[in-house]
Amino acid sequence: MNQDIVPHYQRVKRMIADRISAGTWNAGDRISSEAELVKAFGVSRMTINRALRELTLEGVLTRVQGVGTFVANVKPQAALFEVRNIAEEIAERGHEHRAEVISLKAEAAPDDVAATFGVRPGTRVFHSLLLHRENELPVQIEDRYVDPRHAAAYLDQDFTRQTPYVYLTAIAPISEAEHIIEAVLPNATERKLLKIDAQEPCLQLTRRTWSAGKPVSHVRLVYPGSRYRLSGRIAPKS
Question: Is residue 170 located within the same domain as residue 99?
Answer without folding.
Answer: yes
